[in-house]
Amino acid sequence: MWASASILASVTLVISVFAPTATAAPRTDPPPRITIGTQHLFPDSSKLGDDGFIVNARNLTDRLTATLTRRGETIWTDTLTSASIDNIPVPAATVRSWKAGRYSLTLTSGDLTKKVTVRVHTRWAPLFSSNGEFTPAGFPRCSTITWAYSAKKEPQGVRSVVADLKVVFDRYEELTGLSLKKVRRASSADIVVNWDDIDYADGIGGSSWDGRNFTAGSVTLSTSSSWARTPGFGYAGRGGLLFHELGHVFGLGHVRQKKTLMHEISYAGSTRDEPGKAEIKGLRYLYRPNSCN
Known about the structure:
The structure is a single chain. This protein has 293 residues and is of the alpha/beta class. It has 2 domains: 90 residues, Immunoglobulin-like (Sandwich); 148 residues, 3-Layer(aba) Sandwich (Collagenase (Catalytic Domain)). Helix content is 23%, strand content 30%. It contains 6 helices and 15 strands. A 5-stranded mixed beta sheet has the order 2-8-7-4-5, with no helix packed on it. A 5-stranded mixed beta sheet has the order 12-11-13-15-14, with helices on one face. Helix 3 packs across helix 5. The longest helix has 22 residues. The chain is elongated.
């Protein structure tokens, strides 16, 4: 009897331990999802690759079909079969065949559908691009931005730098709608132009940003560059160099067209030495100067 009671007790305990497992809810897989924002494509950017559209698609159980349309006409389509997708590749040559304007991109996987706007911008490109994604950005629109010139490492004999800078900043003020004010101290300026020992370029320019707007910019001229040391504008003057580097500061990136100001190499006598239609188009998109009082 004791033995039987002992066995029955053991059986009871075993049942008690395993009962929760028998009643547990069945495990479910996470639902499929697609996250995508407005897409910007720049066919004329020198950085254009085959990355195509940036997307965050996860847990897909059906193939993903991407269709690009414009005015009801299908321009391009592709199908991917991966469960996780970070970008939808499009050959650069294909993107370069697309005209400027608004397109509609529709992504479909099973019962899940996402539709976003695609903006194709031609003849100009933004300064920032990361992992194939281009980000049009600049200083806050219609704002006051200060600039200063630091002569700390200015080469001996150099003259008229501030006069040339005033011409360039005045022109960018017209094109952006920003209020560009010169200040004395570089430490308090939003944009600083200075000199340093650079052996790989005549000058470098760019800006930092907070993920939404530019927060500061700088241009560094090479102390060993005869172009940077030559005053004035036109064929040999530094004006073209200043316009190019400050173009970066205000949000313009390199483009493929050799005759434009923002080509990465300047060809004497053929490359523009001031903003042309291409750069003006980009600056108008970034800053909408007509909206500033």
